Amino acid sequence: MNENPGALLPELLLVLAAVIGLLAGSWLPRHRQWVVRLIAVVACAAGVVAAIADLTRPVQLVFGDTYVVDVGLGAVRIIVLASIILTIGLSIDRFAGSPRETEFYVLLLLGGLGAIVMAGAKDLLLLVAAYLLASIPLYALTGIARTASGTEAAMKYYLMGALSGVTMLVGATLLFGVGGSTQYSDLAFALSEAPRAVVAVGLVAVLAGLLFKIGAVPLHFWVPDVVQGATTPVAAFVATIPKIGGLWALYRLLSTALSTSDVDWSLLIAVIAAATMTLGNLAAFFQDDVRRLLAYSTISQVGYLLMAVAAANRAVLALPALGFYLAAYAVTNLGAFAVVAELPRATTLADYRGMATRHRWLALSLVICLLGLIGTPPTAVFVGKLTVFTAIVDAGMAWLAVIAVVNTMASVFYYLRWIAPAVRGRDKASSVDVLSKAGTWGAASAHSAAAASLLLGVLSGPVLALLG
């Protein structure tokens, strides 16, 4: 065994912060639960520093070669930890002083830890364990407010997650049965000589868990209900962080364990990507609820991200494209959710009418994030999409790039349906001020995310070089 706890410093910091935060929250009075929030932010910030330091070190395989510490995992660590900080920022106005404030922060840390471990897993058993760690805290988070809609969403989320998890475990068992091992490196040799039909069934079953985790077709049904039913901070977390770990885990599994198999997994992922982006865009067209619109937007973004997975082992740009697009998507999507969290009474697109005259900087942040999700230069998502499109063409699947371009142009419609009322006209006359702000933290998070989206787009060259 090649144990090296030092290689897992960011993960250990999350575990330590979760344990200390839970114990501290049990003793602190309600008005001092902010201490737990501080512990969580400090742990994530320290984890980012440790992850950046690890980027300069050689690849490490630790704990029986079941966990790999490389540039890819380093990127996922940084993205996830920074996203947790951003999620905490947009949640302060909602959860400060709440009876479940401590539990909220602890569950965020554990859910983020699960996403990171999924990305670094190089063994099927560890992947399944990470899937559970990335899922169970999120079920609790979805229903943490104890509202009728939140409870219903949590139940749907749990039932689909349990079914997907069991299917995933069956798939891992099949691959172990024909491969004789659960480690990706061993499977890469064994599966090339295994019965093709059994490998295909096992792969599809394992994909069930990962596709559920990232919210891709055909296991996407939970996404709009959870995003609409949960509180906005939870919706932001669920729609962003698990997808980072899930997509990287999918990339690592296919490019390593299935690298020599006769199963054409690349075409399978390409078809799923096309279906996911198309369904997400079509379903978002006539949504009036802003959170439901963001939910379907999230599904469509997953479709674009899956293109990089389909190009794995076929294009040099596939890996850096996936890493950069994940970072761009995380900050941009969380920025849009931060605006929604700052204006909790504005639940429909029409409610945002006149926003620019009331909150001009917040409206600017919203416009930047929504145009960013489209893929408008100079935002980071534009560079991410361009790199992914290039990778998929280099992989010999130009047809998928054409579908993606058409979907991108089509997505302009529903994003503009939100931008248009926000930047023009006066707010609706009503006895309820739907554009009243919840506080200041949501706005600060939105401004930070919008600025990060622009900055990441400008600095895309060095970042892509580092990932490559």
Q: Tell me the major beta sheet.
A: 2 strands, antiparallel
The average pLDDT score comes to 92
| Regions with little confidence, pLDDT below 50 for 5+ residues | none
| Helix share, percent | over 70%
Q: What is the β-strand count?
A: 2
Distance between the termini: 30 Å
Side by side, the strands of the main sheet go: 1-2
User: What order do the SSEs take from the amino end to the carboxyl end, as H and E?
Assistant: HHEEHHHHHHHHHHHHHHHHHH
Q: Treating each run of at least 4 consecutive H or I residues as one helix, how many helices? A: 20
Q: What is the alpha-carbon Rg in Å?
A: 21 Å
- Broad shape: globular
Descriptive overview:
By secondary structure, the chain is mainly α. The chain has helices at residues 9-27, 34-54, 71-95, 101-120, 124-142, 148-179, 184-190, 196-214, 222-229, 232-238, 241-257, 265-284, 290-310, 318-342, 355-358, 360-374, 380-394, 398-423, 441-458, 460-467, and strands at 60-62, 67-69. A two-stranded antiparallel ribbon has the order 1-2. β1 (60-62) and β2 form a beta hairpin. The longest helix has 32 residues, at 148-179. The chain is globular and about 65 Å long. The mean pLDDT is 92.
Short description:
The protein is mainly α and 468 residues long. The protein has helices at 9-27, 34-54, 71-95, 101-120, 124-142, 148-179, 184-190, 196-214, 222-229, 232-238, 241-257, 265-284, 290-310, 318-342, 355-358, 360-374, 380-394, 398-423, 441-458, 460-467, and strands at 60-62, 67-69. The chain contains 20 helices and two strands.
